[in-house]
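I had to read the description of the data format several times before I understood it. In essence, backbone conformation is discretised, so a fold becomes a row of integers matching the chain in length. I therefore recommend that a typical entry be quoted early in the introduction. For illustration, here is how one protein appears when written out as sequence plus structure tokens.

***
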Amino acid sequence: MVRLFAGLFTLFTIGVLAGTAGFFWLISSYGGDLPDHQYLAEYEPPTVTRIHAGDGRLLAEYARERRVFVPIAAIPQRVINAFLSAEDKGFYSHPGLDVLGIGRAVLTNIRNLQNDRRPVGASTITQQVAKNFLLSNEVSITRKLKEAVLAIRIEGALSKDRILELYLNEIFLGYRSYGVAAAALNYFNKALAELTLAEAAYLAALPKAPNNYHPIRRTEAAIARRNWVIGRMLEDGHIAPDVARAAMGAPLEVRRRDATEIVEAEYFAEEVRRELERMYGEEALYEGGLSVRATVDPRLQAIATEALRDGLMTYDRRHGWRGPIARLRSMDDWRAALTRILPPAGGEAWQLAVVLDASQRAGAEIGLVDGSRAVIPFDELKWARRWIKGQRIGRQPQRPADVLARADVVLVEPLPVDAEASADTVDPARFALRQIPAVQGGLVAMDVHTGRVLAMSGGFAASMSQFNRATQALRQPGSSFKPFVYLAALDNGFTPSSLVMDAPFEYDPGFGQPMWRPQNYSHEFYGPTPLRVGIEKSRNVMTVRLAHYIGMDKVKTIAETFGIFDVMPPFLPLSLGAGETTVLRMTTAYAMLANGGKRIQPSFIDHVQDRHGRTIFRHDTRPCPLCRGLPWTADMRVPDVPDTRETIADPRTVYQIVSILEGVTQRGTAVRLRSLNRPLAGKTGTTNESRDTWFMGFSPDLAVGLYIGFDQPEPLGRRETGSSVALPVFKQVMEQALAGEPTKPFRVAKGVSLVRVNPKTGALAEPGETPVIWEAFLPGTDPGSGDRFVLDGSANTAYDDTTWGAPSVAERPRTDRSGGGASVTGFGTGGLY
């Protein structure tokens, strides 16, 4: 017996030693080339980047996987218990491997091999973490051995809670859900803390094969698997029998996730996305869980979007009807045929309809997708003159048949119900004919003091094109560039009352190019004219003569300083806005006029926080220790925050330009803004052949700029200008944006003298004279301080009749050669030139 016992002990010892040796051999054989598991200690799962609007509402989300990360301490115990019972009840006691489970799996797999069935595993949660994070999904013994080795290493490096945290936040549970928090939202529209026991058990039933237990397509299998988990929880002592019975009897009800209220600003959101990707890279954007506060003001954004759309549609309607979007081949089953037609991009806000009858003079009968019938009154068709190439239009329609025909498929929008209609009368629903504009545009609204972009629209609809015409389209600003020419003149001795000759002008660019003879829009000349009027009436010839005199190098400096161009060639035609820039750059430049010449940088982002709540970017970098991290009470004094903005221009001459631009809205090309009874300033812009129309303007605190034109530039049509096309959009924005706001005048710069002058002549106003304005002058430069500064017809001879010893009329040159092959000719007949 002793020998038998000794022999058995020897065999056992040899077996243990062999097993130990075999184990270490496996470790050395399969552990040498395994991935590094140490990074799991610092691993942060990919999570959603969320962008919020200025009022806190969601603007956009960006992620490759819809995951919500929840720390283990915040995961309810019932959820943890459900997953432990379903997946690994010995998780908190084993060293990473379940030896008994592996034995059972070995026996099962022997039987499966005989039946040619798929092998089963006995993976612990730690092994699943090793597989999900560090290995592939390959089904093989080699992979299982590597998984086992990694599990042991992970157990030695991480705490059990950290391993479970990684598992519960990483595991895929179907319904595009990565992690238990995302699954709770997507399946039950609940936070983790709100899940019932039955719901938690269902989620725990999903890791092996989510599609096999789909709650709708495979309800019975899903309930059976859920109840199995509940049974395991009962066996493990996590729940009482009566609780288990109640949970097993509960129905499996899936609830659609609540639609998150999202601010509609697709162009804005895309611009923020681009900026984040530029700042932090693609990986941080889509996996970093950033929390971003954008600058967008949802109310102003809605106003801007609607105004630009209205402006584009208004212009489009003026230029005619381009026809239906489709025609049905057969009207036998028009409803079925209509449902097969997809709405065109840009028409999502309207409905598809087919014309059933256009023969009645009162209107056209239409059929809608739902099978109902309605009518387009003839009054809603009168605008639809036939479009003719070149932005011309046909004759006025006399009846619906002049516009529509049976089987035409068109876009329509319901008209408001007539409140005066009798309740006893059942009239067909009334619709308006709609057309997606061919013209496009871009708009930016900006806080003039900070550069925060409060609203932006890059076109009629983002579904038509992601191309952002507010930030990406390079267009010629036309006359909206002129204020910066005049600012350069004011910085170089001119005043708002200086007289500039509005007379024919010739410029020889040299190099065999034809002579350039700029014209005013009216094709007339107005003689000696105050500098102010040159902007108010947008006089081209005056502007060119002024730019030529002061030198395009000075205009170039101003334009580059204000950020309109990075580099501006000093060519004379660019004084009329022939260079290309963006709406965003121009709006920023005008904002810096409005704020008195302080540099601002346009920003779409207020601040960015990382997944841990640390602020990693802040647009406002001014030092203010009392502004952050302290609770605010009503009795606290508002902190003094230093103004760190760089002064880029003389605030006095900047104010002179602001005052002149305010005159544009009172007497000039933007006079229709006067009806708003608000302090507003701005400038229209129209390029050659009306290919682009602009309006740039501002109130004391808000700058709004926009352009409207075709993506492939072509003339907008006769008599279409910045005043007729772009200005109404600006007016609509300002009227709604400033509604309810107190009226605030423009801030007068220190060191400016206000003198009463006649705006038409620039001369000091006589008692009782009209019209009269308060003109801004630098000290000692007003008309009462000496003789007036005059720029005559020779274009580069400027003189003051007294102090500069100007030549007599007979001596003044009619042609001045300035070198470089350029010549300027002025035509004068005496007096002020």
